[in-house]
Task: structure prediction
Amino acid sequence: MLLEGRHIINAVDVRDLHPWQVDTWEARRIQLRLASQVVREGAPAHVQAIVGADIHVERAKARGAVVVLSYPELRVIVGADIHVERAKARGAVVVLSYPELRVIEQAIYETEVTFPYVPGLLSFRETPVLLGAFRQIETKPDLLLVDGQGYAHPRRFGLACHLGLILDVPAIGCAKSRLIGEHGPVGPAAGSRADLLDGGEVIGTVLRTRDGVSPLFVSVGHRIGLEEAAAWVLRCCRGYRLPEPTRLAHQAAGGRALPSASREPADQQMSLL
Result:
């Protein structure tokens, strides 16, 4: 079957690289092992389908109890406890045609989050949810943009690396905030950038995607070089701070309906390249 006469539709191949029911120590060990398999060079060829992925986690509900008792010789004894329910997560995968950047497919997967919230280990919390959505799509992605870190990570293995390696597709981490590293000033105009450094190593780029708005933190996920990653983020922007794949995935994960077409002509943002 063809997508608009051009793109062959296949099931997404999800590779089983490790168990998910692990403690935090084992999760860090898995990250260190898999980080050596990340490919930080290359460029996607013949891109016709770009996928954006994001996740929304509802706040866990907590119920607290305080019991006050009297006791001989002591005025008051207080007992306190709290019960926290597991948080529910909604993972969204949105497939866009390129260069039109029109939505051609989307998938939502909802489940309980079982891994704790630990900075640097969010991929173990979020990847299983997103894989549930990826298993539903029928279009093989040529490029993946992830709302999260890639190589710009303490163990050089953020969410974009994790997903890119499991799905074996070119992947880019496109985060709204910095996890690690330092950088110099970024010019005010869209397309301005600065190296993101950690211990003297360039781990990403700080990229302004719209005049006068806060920059994004772009890093390699898998099977793509940093220069290409930054260029593709700009190609996917349509006047917003976020590139269309992750912007629309964020909307879908939050439960909002997606538009059927992009806001601006494709050549408007690509002129920055």
About this structure: Confidence is low (pLDDT under 50) at residues 1-10, 261-270. The chain has one domain: 2-57+87-270. The first helix runs from residue 24 to 35.
